[in-house]
Amino acid sequence: MRISRRTALRRSAGMAAAAALAQGYADSPASAVPAAAHQGWDADEAAWRELGRILGAGAYLHRPGGQGYLASASADNQRYAAVRPAGIVMCAAESDVVKAVRWAARHGVPFAVRSGGHNYAGYSTTTGLVINLRAMKQVTPKGRRLHLGGGATNSDVYAARDAGLYFPGGRCPGVGVAGLTLGGGLGFNDRKWGLTCDRLAETRLVLADGTVVRAAADENPDLFWACRGGAGGNFGINTAFTFDAVPVGRLRATVFDLTFALASAVDVVAEVQDILAGDGAGDFDVRIGFKHNGQSTTSLWVLGQFIGPQDRLRRLLTPLLALRPRRSFIEERGFWSAQDYLMENPGAKDCYASKSLVPDRWLAPGTVAEIAEWTRTWRPGPAKATGYVTLFAMGGTSDSPRPDETAYPHRDGTYVIDIGTHWQPGTPPAEVNSLLAQTRSAHRLLRNRLDTDAAYVNFPDPDLTDWRRAYYGANHDRLAEVKRRYDPAGLFRYAQAIGTD
Ligand SMILES: Cc1cc2nc3c(=O)[nH]c(=O)nc-3n(C[C@H](O)[C@H](O)[C@H](O)COP(=O)(O)OP(=O)(O)OC[C@H]3O[C@@H](n4cnc5c(N)ncnc54)[C@H](O)[C@@H]3O)c2cc1C
């Protein structure tokens, strides 16, 4: 692909504007982004009209001021809502994605790809062109496989349950399978059947030069490797995914949902760790959450699933139940009904930020006591923001592949730890900074106690300086090689993209 000097200059100007937004305003609430910084990228009107004309049936181009623009401009995280795209292509088919990529390359317009729009760091929004695949959401069963359009979300997979086929997905209904898979994919079934990316059999991508390729073990294997943990928005636009599914139609699962006082945290975590250590088959999966709800309430919740009957789970949980939970719900259900219970209630859109760690050891009692104390002393500020630390249990099948077998490297993790905060749009910057400072202090504390910097790329953190090693460990150099091969000019770019200096 040849790019003129003028185009290259305009592109780098657009990139710089987007990077400035990502870097300079990362710690500010969306409302604090100066108006001049988000007026959109400057392509001429004739070029935009051309894009609108070339799209196929069912696809739309939204421009500022037009119908449908506001509804589709911002992604889920309102922290970046003031980053206003100059245009949004709602793709209906792979051919629209090809046209949008070719058009953006030809006109030097920076772009970001969006599927579920749940990126923590604003990497699926831009002042240039958003290429949105959300409408490409069909889920089609064939034999033991599920074929998905690139814009399908967790909820689309659950809606196709009549086929009785499942692959391990995430908890939030609106999270896109694209972002989830490309960065790894944690859920309540990963200890049993692996990460989402571990079940990927093949995928199709539109590359930077507009060609379409298939990536699988037998074709473009290096790209296939990178698509399992190398994160979205790096190598191309994935327009379709095929997963090796598990028949779950007749399976039963028992959900459990327990809440304790923070004062019991040391004992609760010790008991859960005992159960995890003894569960070689990965039937038991759990998240432990320390939460300050922004008002005056703190809690420790233990939510999970056991693939098996209730009486067996109750026996496993006996020591935990002896710690007298404030609330205890345990119920055996059909597999799908259990997933419905575990699904997160999405609630209203707000602003959020997360930091993560992936330790290779269990949490010592002293560390658990420190997390509990951090939660107890969380300062929500006048905005009544929530603060939390969530432990996603890993291990079982999710740790079976070698660290270099797929691009997701953290195969010795005991937990993925998510340290975060949610706040309301419009919260003053000083208050937001105080919330973020508190998450940084918990991150620092746990990094020292657990002796790791490893982080989960699907909880991207604009603060991280050594993000290459944190997200990818020893796999980073191979990812950079794949990048050079499939996107040599670095058309796919964002603040923490592979290949970014
Ligand atoms: C409320 C909430 C709950 C979450 N729960 C979980 C969970 O249970 N387990 C878990 O593992 N993670 C979870 N996450 C993190 C989630 O996995 C990531 O945010 C994921 O990347 C979101 O994917 P998306 O398609 O929704 O996001 P997007 O913002 O659309 O995309 C994420 C990244 O991938 C790129 N991208 C999007 N579509 C494509 C495509 N088709 N081809 C190539 N690149 C693409 C984007 O440019 C961006 O860089 C959660 C996040 C939130 C906000």
Can I get a quick summary?
Strand 13 and strand 14 (298-306) form a beta hairpin. The protein contains 15 helices and 18 strands. Helices cover 31% and strands 21% of the residues.
Mean pLDDT reading: 91
| Beta strand count | 18
Which fold name fills CATH's third level, the topology of the largest domain?
Vanillyl-alcohol Oxidase, Chain A, domain 3
Largest sheet: 7 strands, antiparallel
- Residue fraction in strands: 15-25%
**Numbering strands along the chain, what is their spatial order in the largest sheet?**
15-12-14-13-17-18-16
- What are the bound molecules? flavin-adenine dinucleotide
CATH class of the largest domain: Alpha Beta
Q: What number of structural domains do the residues give? A: 3
Distance between the termini: 22 Å
Helix/strand/pairing class, anyone?
alpha+beta
Gyration radius from CA atoms, angstroms:
22 Å
Structure, described:
A seven-stranded antiparallel sheet has the order 15-12-14-13-17-18-16. A five-stranded antiparallel sheet has the order 5-6-10-8-9. It has a four-stranded mixed sheet with strand order 1-2-4-3. It is 31% helix and 21% strand. 51% of the residues are buried. The protein is built from 15 helices and 18 strands. The longest helix is centred in the C-terminal third of the chain and has 22 residues, at 429-450. The protein folds into three domains: 5-132, Uridine Diphospho-n-acetylenolpyruvylglucosamine Reductase, domain 2; 139-248 and 473-483, Uridine Diphospho-n-acetylenolpyruvylglucosamine Reductase, domain 3; 252-469, Vanillyl-alcohol Oxidase, Chain A, domain 3 (3-Layer(aba) Sandwich). β8 and β9 (212-216) form a beta hairpin. α9 (265-278) packs antiparallel against α10 (310-321), α9 packs across α12 (365-376) and α12 (365-376) runs antiparallel to α13 (429-450). The protein is an alpha+beta fold and 501 residues long. It has helices spanning 5-24, 45-54, 69-73, 94-107, 154-159, 177-183, 190-193, 221-226, 265-278, 310-321, 335-342, 365-376, 429-450, 467-472, 476-486; strands spanning 60-62, 87-90, 111-114, 129-132, 139-142, 145-149, 165-166, 200-206, 212-216, 237-244, 246-247, 252-260, 284-292, 298-306, 327-334, 351-357, 386-393, 415-423. Flavin-adenine dinucleotide is lined by residues 75-76, 112-120, 123-124, 133, 150, 170-172, 175-176, 178-180, 182-183, 185-187, 232-233, 237-238, 458.
